[in-house]
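Example 5.3 — Glutamate synthase subunit beta
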Amino acid sequence: MGNPRGFIEVPRKESGNRPINERIDDYGEVEQTLNEADRVLQASRCMDCGIPFCHWACPVGSKIPEWQDAVYKGEWKLASDILHSTNSFPEFTGRICPNPCEKSCVLAIHKEAVTIRENECSVVEKAFAEGYVQPRVPQVRTGKKVAVIGGGPAGLSAADLLNQMGHKVTVFEKDEAVGGLLRFGIPDFKLNKKVIDRRIEIFEQEGIEFKYNTYVGFDIKGAQILKDFDAVVLAIGAMKPRDLPVEGRELKGVHFAMEFLTQQNRVNRGNKLNGIERIDAKGKNVLVIGGGDTGSDCVGTSNRQKAKSVTQIEILPKPPEERAAGNPWPYWPTVLKTSTSHEEGCERMWSVSTKRFIGAGGKLKQVELVEVEWTKDENGAWKMNEKAGSEKIIDVDLVFLSMGFVHCMHEGLVEELGVDLDQRGNLKVGANYQTSIDKVFAAGDAHNGASLVVTAIQKGREAADNVNKFLMEK
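Solution (predicted structure tokens):
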């Protein structure tokens, strides 16, 4: 620890965001950056605690005190090396991770946590700028071939480690570019997609092969993959969205959130929609159903498309401003979160349920909502009841269903291979990440359920370790 009084002498300073009136006219990244001198000072605030709860809370086990100290000392390459030792993509997590590490920072007790996420992003950007990040081409190959199905964070993480272990890795991606929801789900104003392209170029130089527009289970059968490869990693995500089966669901104007977000991201890429009707919020009343990050992304995208109004509803009660008594540090704080998208303009409502969609001529015109109350039954389980007389009808032109994902897609590859599923519909794996099919493993949301990008990265790493053991024992 370079400065034992850093956390006392230096106040927390965040990078801040671009002005609202500027950023809502484009899809450039919202967050700004601090200069190098300020970043070094922020790193000096890390106390190198006897028990680093930040490390405990981080899914990839980032050695946070170590690389913070390196930043403070100006040893940027060392900081980058430490970061990359547990995470293949600190440039992703440094931008979009909800930073559970900061929530568990000892200084978070007094709401002055170290700016860990922003420091991480600065380290990796410095590393790229200075040329510290270079292709690492394996010098020895094992002769084993591994197919990774899915190019999201879990698949890419697994592919990176397996390639460095000397195996020949081929990533099969159903879309025109890899990244999964990093590329097509998360808006550009949160993650510039050039950041993904930069890393993929390095992976290609390191020997990883990418096959795009190849939907395994449809364009190529799983049986052929099993025949051609020594091991297979299913990193297909949890892409089955949770639906809302109420009256009027079929009306034109009701969409899953990912239909909206992926379309806008493709438009930003310069892709043609090829006959697919454009989902355009311009001049329309938009309702986002679901209060999570994906819903927030719909809010931000609607604002940039110049929606007339944007409303977001959540069926759960409004979270408290501060930690509740039963939600102590260092656990994840269940508190009210206001994103940059919310700041740009959005009416938010909690404890509200959707009763029906109302339309005319097949088009959505209104939505009936009702307030709900949450109570506990005699067993302590939460139950929801509608409040009598609280129904109301609002004018709506577009609805985005943003209520999360239930499990991986079963159609195609999963059904063809006959992989066992758990009770939630995810791929069932053992302690070694192997599925019920010989030499077929699973990584990320496909078996873990929809979760954080940083968790998917770690699950990919753990799966890669187990695949390597399997191959080497063979």
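Remark. The mean pLDDT is 96.
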